[in-house]
Amino acid sequence: MAAGFKTAEPQEYHRSFLKEKCRPDGRELGEFRPTTLNVGSINTANGSALVKIGNTTVICGIKAELAVPTADAPDKGYIVPNVDLPPLCSSRFRPGPPGEQAQVASQFIADIIDDTNIIKKEDLCIEKSKLCWVLYCDIMCLDYDGNLLDACIITLLAALKNAQLPKVTINKETDLPEVDTQHKRHLQINKHPVASSFAVFDDEVIIVDPTTEEESLATALITAVTDEDDQLCAFHKPGGSSLLAEKLQDCVSRAVTRNREINKLIDKVTESKKSSK
Amino acid sequence: MELDINSPVLREFGSEQSLLSKPDGSATFMQGDTSVMVGVYGPAEVKVNKEIYDRATLEVLIQPKSGMPSVRERTREQCVRETCEAALLSTLHPRSSLTLVLQVVHDDGSLLACCLNAACMVLMDAGLPMSRLFCGVTCAIDAEGQIITDPTAQQEKESRALLTFAIDSKEHNVMMSSTKGSFSMKEMQQCIAVSQKASERIFQFYRDSVKRRYSKIL
Amino acid sequence: MRETPLSNCERDFLLKGIQEKKRLDGRQTYDYRNIKISFGTDYGCCTVTLGKTRVLAQVSCELVPPKDSRPTEGIMFFNLELSPMASPGFQSNRQSELLVTLNRQLERCLRNSRCIDTESLCVISGEKVWQIRVDVHVLNHDGNLMDAASVAAISALCHFKRPEVAIQGRDVTVFSPEERDPVPLSVYHMPICVSFAFFQQGSYLLVDPCEKEELVMDGLLVLAMNKHREICSIQSSGGIMLLKDQVLRCSKIASVKVSEITELITKALENDRRARKEGGKFGFAESIAKERITVLTREEAPLDTTDIQATADGIISKADAPPEVVPSPVIVATGTGQVGEGLENTWGLEEDDEEEEMADVTERKTKEDEVMVLSDSEEEEVVILNQDGRSKRSQR
Fold first, then answer.
1. C113, C151, C136: which is closest to C264 by C-alpha?
2. Phi and psi (nearest 5°) for C159?
């Protein structure tokens, strides 16, 4: 009976739950799905992490390569994020070149990296205008069930924390780089941004951490990114129903709480990994 | 009050509607030197794979001035499209297509805001049914924390954060938000408040332009 | 979306008119529509309107390695774009036949005529040269795109200025416009395309066909010529046979038209230069006709922002402050942790598949006992963890 109701009138189905201040999967309006984090999931990558928010599963691998810095920024390395939404993760994605959602997500993550200076790009430079690191951050979604951006940013941050780069020196005589794989160092992480996504239902009810179904029925989506100093790094609302400034403020304060939760999680997990060695 | 001396301004702005013969609606919007031209086609027949059974399919294309559209244009397109979708009563034209093509003519800062304003002008020109109007306002926060509205490209470059909001004409609420750089909660709320103030002037402009078009006296 | 086709009645009407030397818009056979050239605030930005046809051209440049075959020459790159704004029939990123023809013609008119001194664009021979890129966007299609595009492209090239460079050994410094004045390109001559439409197997001829006339024409002859009456390219399409006399007559007409248009471009360039020099206003905002009822402008004006602070403070103080204490995450295994619970998690941490990727895990604290509850609203199972695994629930 309930299943039939859900298929025939999905909007009404969700509305009847939201009226009682709860959601079809049993969550409260402001409750995230359980978030599970695993670091060092890929041995061959320089750094990696896997995040699961409910069913949404995203994995990030970081590959570091040596390159020549660009002419206009000779003392900086660069970070290239890429979000991949393969047909594997949901039937809505088709094989072929990245669709709009993947492109927008990649750009969003690139903006976050640039705006917040997660890693100082100067740290990635080995020798000015000669050699620098390029970090390829490949983020792949394995299972898509809404709230992609949150998962992407957590996995990126955890993977960057997990990443280790070998020591590289330039041999003065041969002018060739020498890689010392014995000495590895972690990257210096300056900022810890965490995203929180919200969906707006019927132009007024705000729910946290929407699933695919909730995303498709929502009248607006919001993503707020905050760092550990409670500064906002991004407040992205691509359109949809208009909201009072007060409601936006509620989203921001929820995002601040979420940031603390997630940073604690990342810290603890990274620590447990370190202590086991 | 810290804002006394450098009180924020809106640059000179203006628009022209119905300037192209081919599209069903066309407009340019200029803010200072920033200028965007836009044309709209529709409601027209829609490709089968894009058809939505209960409303019109809206497509937004942003053409940069030189080179091919990049990922950045995709993000802008998404912002403009979803804002227009919220304002348009697209359920009145089910199984049809609306195509909005924006051509960047000159970028001197506040480009996304200009795109939004141009989009609203063109939807008005094409006479498409809308539940409300909207406008875009960009605010930049400079190194001293001062808010600059409608920044030029130079001011954007020097700024610490850049926030663009779309404000609706009904309740002056926030329809769209797109930001760059980091800022505090207070700064965001101030920017929203400034944008709401600025939006009043743009809505007045919309009203005046419609009045001018449909009055007999110049 | 498809282009509206021309009906037979319209077709017959147009052809009849042409036979009687009458055109739809009242022009004479050899008349051009009004040409308006305006320049943007950027160097190398120009819009041209030819009647209702409108194109926008933008020139840009960058330093690139030269082609191996020509190590001392700069590179010219032309890209004509049929924006879907111009006509419902145009689709973005689709190579249509019209697009290819126009691009080829533009290249032959401007690159192969060697109107720009490409050798002066060389910075370091064999290593770095300027690539000049010309983007032409068609904004409104009302026939004769070729002429409009060629006028826009050459005007933009004449208007364009590239940054000054200095060479020290093998290092190249590019100066911003504030540091050193940018330099214009050296333009040898200005080739301009003139299109002739032929009807009824070449018995009737029209200059500057509009879109409707293009739809009923039999053939098209495009002549590119400069004001010195030198022909830069001739292209005949549509499969009509032309007599030698016809071509000669066309070239005579073209030479008149070209000198008129060249004068117009020179005048427009001169006006823009004067406005810039005198510090007056220039750019597209100045070129729109303010007296039209569809045009409205507003002066720059300050905003009243007296109560901004109070509004912002009010909203922030009203909102709930975020709680200081947040739930602690549970570390399920080395390198794996979880925050929040209460929902089914199909990632089966209780199962042994975790072992594969972390072979070094020897000790796992599996605290949870499982309680399975079948939910009634959903078909899936829900795992509820008991007290031990449960941490403080998140607030709100």
1. C151
2. -80, -25
Least confident window among A262-271, C246-255, C334-343: C334-343
Nearest to C38 by CA among C28, C49, C50: C49
Query: Residue ranges of chain B with pLDDT lower than 70?
Result: 1-6, 216-218
Q: For residues A147 and A165, what is the distance between their CA atoms, to the nearest angstrom?
A: 31
Domain boundaries, chain B: 13-214
Specify the amino acid at residue C351. E
pLDDT tens for each residue of chain A, 277 residues long: 678 888 888 889 999 999 988 898 888 888 899 999 999 889 899 999 999 999 999 999 999 999 888 877 888 888 999 999 999 999 989 898 898 899 999 999 999 998 888 888 888 888 888 888 999 999 999 999 999 999 999 999 999 999 989 888 888 777 788 888 888 888 889 899 999 999 998 888 999 999 999 999 999 999 999 998 888 999 999 988 889 888 999 999 899 999 998 999 999 998 888 887 6
Cβ–Cβ under 8 Å, residues A271 and A242: no
C343 near A25, Cβ under 8 Å?
yes
Q: What is C8-287's CATH topology?
A: Ribosomal Protein S5; domain 2 (3.30.230)
Give A19-84 as a 3 state SS string. Answer: HCCCCCCCCCCCCCCCEEEEECCCCCCCEEEEEEECCEEEEEEEEEEEECCCCCCCCCCEEEEEEE
Give bridge partners of residue C193 from the DSSP assignment: C224
| Domains of chain A listed by start with CATH number | 27-275 (3.30.230.70)
Q: At CA A113, angle to CA B178 and CA A208, rounded to 5?
A: 55
Q: Give first-to-last CA distance, chain A, whole Å.
A: 53
Q: Return the H-helix or E-strand segment holding A271.
A: helix A245-275
Residues in A touching C339 (Cβ below 8 Å) = 32, 34-35, 261-262, 264-265
- Is some CB atom of chain B closer than 8 A to the CB atom of A235? yes
Largest CA distance in chain C: 100
For helices A100-116 and B71-87, angle between their N-to-C axes, nearest 10 degrees = 110
Taking an 8 Å cut-off on Cβ atoms, the answer to whether B86 and A242 are in contact is yes
| Domain B13-214: CATH class, spelled out | alpha beta
The single residue listed with the structure tokens 């509820």 is C384
| CA–CA distance, B74 with C63 (Å, rounded to integer) | 27
Structural domain spans, chain C: 8-287, 330-389
pLDDT at C382: 46
Say which of C321, C334, C349 has its CB closest to residue A273: C334
| Residue C336, token pair as written in the block | 């794996």
B216 inside 8 A of chain C by CB: no
Distance from the Cα of residue A138 to its chain's centroid = 11
Tell me if chain C has a CB within 8 Å of the CB of A41.
yes
Query: Does the interface predicted TM-score (ipTM) exceed 0.85?
Result: yes
Distance from first CA to last CA of chain B, Å, rounded? 41
Looking at beta carbons, which residues of chain B come within 8 Å of A242?
86, 132, 167-168, 170-171, 173-175
Q: Sign of torsion, CA C254 C259 C262 C267? A: negative
Token output for B166: 């779309």
Cβ burial of C249 (10 Å; 0-12, 13-18, 19+) is middle
Q: Which H/E stretch holds residue A133?
A: strand A131-143
Q: Report yes or no: B17 at the C interface, CB cutoff 8 Å.
A: yes
**A108 part of contact set with chain B, CB < 8 Å:** yes
Judged by DSSP in three states, C269 sits in helix
CA atoms within 13 A on the CB side of B72: 9
With beta carbons less than 8 A apart as the criterion, state whether C320 and B23 touch.
no
Q: Is A104 on the interface with B (CB under 8 A)?
A: yes
B79, B176, B182 member nearest A232 (Cβ): B182
Q: What does DSSP assign to residue C283?
A: S
